[in-house]
Amino acid sequence: MRTNLSPTNRPAGRASTWRYTLQGVASLLWVVQAWWLAGALAALLAYAQGAAQDVTTGEQARAALVAAPWAELWYAAGVVVLAGVLRAALEYAGARATYGWARAQLTALRQAFAARLRATSPLDARRPSSGQLASAWVEQAEAVVPWLARYRAAQWRVMVVAPVVLVCVAMHTWVAALLLALAAPLIPLFMALVGWRAQAISERQMLVLGHLHGHLLERLRGLPTLRALHAVDSAAARLTQLGETVARQTMRVLRVAMLSSAVLELFSALGVALVAVYVGFHLLGQLPFGAWGERMSLHQGLFVLMLAPSFFEPLRELSAVWHDRANGLAAQRTLAHLLQGLTPLVQADEADDADDADQATGAGDMPPAQGLEADEAQALQGPAPSVALCGVMPTMQTQVEPSTQAAPVQEPAAMSAVNAAQATRQPWHIDIPAGAHVALTGPSGSGKSTLLALVAGLVQPQQGQVRIGGVPLHSGTVARLRRAIGWLGQPPHFLAGSLERNLYLGRDIPASPVQARAALRDAGLAALADRMAEVRLGEGGSGISGGEALRLALARLAVAESTRLLLLDEPTAHLDAATAAQVRASVARLAQGKTLLVATHDPELAASLPYELNLDAQGQAQWLRRPAQPEALPAEMPQGGQEAQP
């Protein structure tokens, strides 16, 4: 199976053939069993017919019973039992190996999906909802396992077992083989017609199911807003409508699956019946032709009758799992197309990513950047890096920047609305010196969040280059540069769990809580620091206030000692005056000795910083305030803007 998510009808390669071969050999052992069973039954019936003519008394019956061909019968029974045991063992080994291989392919598919998801910008408004992604990752992807483990095995049996059975039948009677061969092509023809319909319906079901999961998750997250707007009943009605749509779509899939089974059962029953009629009349002498110029024996006739159903058995099994193919292809296509067309992330290459995994401790100095010039490596290890946007032109549809006029509880769906005004008319030429504390101001939609995303490597620019500490931000340097970057998005993300887990968030929790408590106190959370072991957060940060959540996010940046560039997006949004003042004080303490870029609508926060870069409604950058010392001034004014007097 191709793990690059490319849709394909041929997921099984040579590596899986031996697994299917075990199951195919197990099926072929029935030919051996049928031959010996037919021989034993024919011998028994022939002896019984002859003995019935000679037996007239009880003594003769007992003598006839003793003289029966028991040795031949016991020998045949032994062969049948031995073949049955071997058949069960091969079937078990093949099924287990095939299932394990199918699970491994599912894991590889999920890893490929995760890699593609990781390579897309989390700020892209076209990104599918969390519920839809979770549905595709967990539920829909599981449909690949039955497709590989059952359908592909059944398909292999049809291609191998059925021809072998047909040859065995043709060795004894060409008429019965011809009847089977005429009935067989009709089955794939109708199955293909039904299969095209089943695949299309399954793909629609995957899309409807993913939409339902995404819709449900969004409504659960926005439940406080729905209650405040008295819209719970309308949301419940919409969920009911979507549930009924999923139910109708599921019934369509089941109808097609039942139809495919009915088609196969019809033609397989017709084929077996015709063979049975011919064999019966041939043994009675009414149809003396078709046995290669001879008359079939009872042994041969019984053998042909036993093989006729086994000729259709692989086809019957294929019909039973035909909907697995439709579901598997639909799942693979859904995973392949779900992330198409999204804005790419500046992604680390494999070598740089491996180095990042080895060094990602969340603390300590940055390791020397291999492959960089000595002065660039020294710039990365400096106390605070400079930031330069050289002719950068962003192209993406980002989430709408949070407005300070919004209600304290905001509908998450509103954060994913497309903001077409993000695209700038002219490239950005911005030079921010090392250690500068810059406030990014401007109306909503002017590009403040996009600028932060560009510096963090969360968005790839259409043109131009971003430099941090003089080092270009690209796939070879992004992993090392990100270890020096602290990002605070809007809103901050929290997991259900302990306070320490949310504080370190993906990094190893140290044995001593001294560092964590110091970071919490510096962020103004002394009360939480004193009872850190007892505090647990719910999903989304429930259990603490909005101001405490923002300060906890700031403390999360403080525990990463390698952070020297802070990117904060609206840290004081939706807070009361007293809490906003506490957050501003926490930001000031955290930013000491670091380069700071803050996107804000808070005039007090903007006034407290020495630099202010304004982005107008067209996305043009203009310095409104900066220190008067010549050595601290940026080397180049941004194009399209005029410096305002502070």
From TrEMBL:
Annotated transmembrane regions: 20-48, 73-90, 156-172, 178-196, 256-278
GO CC terms: plasma membrane
Keyword Transmembrane helix recorded: yes
The keyword RNA-binding is assigned to this record: no
Gene Ontology molecular functions: ABC-type transporter activity; ATP binding; ATP hydrolysis activity; ATPase-coupled lipid transmembrane transporter activity
Keywords on record: ATP-binding, Cell membrane, Membrane, Nucleotide-binding, Transmembrane, Transmembrane helix
Superkingdom: Bacteria
Alphabetized InterPro entries for the sequence: AAA+_ATPase, ABC1_TM_dom, ABC1_TM_sf, ABC_transporter-like_ATP-bd, ABC_transptr_CydD, P-loop_NTPase, Type_1_exporter
Positions of the UniProt region annotated as Disordered: 624-646
Pfam families associated with the record: ABC_membrane, ABC_tran
PROSITE patterns: ABC_TM1F (PS50929), ABC_TRANSPORTER_2 (PS50893)
Topology in the lipid bilayer: Multi-pass membrane protein
Cell compartment(s), UniProt: Cell membrane
Residue ranges annotated for the ABC transmembrane type-1 domain, each copy included: 25-327
Protein name (record): Thiol reductant ABC exporter subunit CydD
Organism of this sequence: Allofranklinella schreckenbergeri
Recorded name of the encoding gene: cydD
